[in-house]
């Protein structure tokens, strides 16, 4: 597996190509990839995702990927390291949390983001700004950071669990983020463990979740896990044994039993 290493805090790449020149690879940095024009397929962690103009992908350091281009594609890559994300002079706190929330949500990297028409327009404008900042990255570093935070804010409000109910509180967003981060570790999704993490009680967190989400904590975790498992199975790249291991399940029969239960 080829691994690309980036030593500069941030790099902007804007180019159009007809054939993808790189083998499957990962990186030591994060990437926000914007499809300015073109069509094709994004092979990401053994999943195949069709892309078109306006699509946006967020990749973490260990994500493996390459592109299969159908129509000449203009890519805009915004690459940044942990140092850039957590640098001492950045506007951190809430804004860093916006990006960390997205990075922790593993499944967003497998599906990209479905943006509203308004937000698609805003993203396009922001990337025009980023392209304009490219000639002098060092001077414009703080401005580039602000664009990343603007993108993070827009992406976060387009996550399915957020768009389904815009009235959900930030506390609920944190609960969803925790579930998504630990969906592969069942022991961390027990009510008692979650309650301790959020400094409350097991008797409170269940009713709180149902009141705000419209279904029980157990139902949401089960439904979300089944969606992910079905995606694995549909790809044809995973055996039941591999899926059971990935999700911390007992064995293949446990996977089959989960899939037979009603959503």
UniProtKB/TrEMBL annotation:
Any GO MF annotation of the entry: DNA-binding transcription factor activity
Domain HTH araC/xylS-type per the UniProt entry, residue ranges: 173-263
Keywords recorded for this protein, A-Z: DNA-binding
UniProt organism field: Pedobacter lusitanus
Protein name per Swiss-Prot or TrEMBL: HTH araC/xylS-type domain-containing protein
Taxon lineage: Bacteria, Pseudomonadati, Bacteroidota, Sphingobacteriia, Sphingobacteriales
PROSITE patterns according to UniProt: HTH_ARAC_FAMILY_2 (PS01124)
Pfam families recorded: AraC_binding (PF02311)
């Amino acid at each position: 597996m080829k691994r690309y290493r980036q030593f500069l805090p941030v790099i902007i790449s804007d180019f159009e190509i007809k054939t993808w020149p790189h083998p499957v690879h990962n990186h030591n940095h994060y990437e926000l990839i914007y499809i300015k024009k073109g069509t094709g397929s994004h092979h990401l962690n053994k999943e195949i995702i069709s892309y078109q103009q306006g699509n946006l992908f967020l990749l973490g350091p260990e994500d493996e990927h390459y592109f299969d281009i159908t129509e000449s594609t203009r890519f805009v890559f915004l690459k940044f390291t942990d140092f850039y994300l957590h640098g001492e002079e950045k506007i951190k706190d809430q804004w860093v949390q916006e990006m960390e929330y997205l990075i922790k949500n593993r499944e967003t990297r497998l599906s990209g983001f479905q943006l509203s028409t308004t937000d698609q327009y805003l993203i396009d404008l922001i990337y025009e700004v980023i392209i304009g900042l490219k000639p002098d990255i060092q001077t414009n570093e703080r401005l580039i950071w602000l664009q990343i935070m603007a993108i993070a804010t827009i992406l976060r409000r387009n996550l399915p669990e957020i768009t389904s109910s815009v009235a959900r509180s930030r506390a609920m967003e944190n609960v969803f983020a925790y579930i998504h981060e630990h969906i592969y570790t069942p022991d961390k999704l027990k009510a008692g463990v979650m309650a301790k993490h959020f400094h409350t009680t097991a008797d409170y967190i269940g009713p709180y979740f149902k009141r705000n989400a419209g279904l029980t904590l157990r139902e949401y975790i089960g439904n979300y896990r089944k969606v992910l498992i079905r995606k694995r199975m549909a790809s044809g790249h995973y055996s039941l044994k591999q899926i059971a291991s990935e999700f911390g399940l007992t064995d293949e029969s446990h996977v089959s039993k989960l899939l037979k239960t009603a959503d």
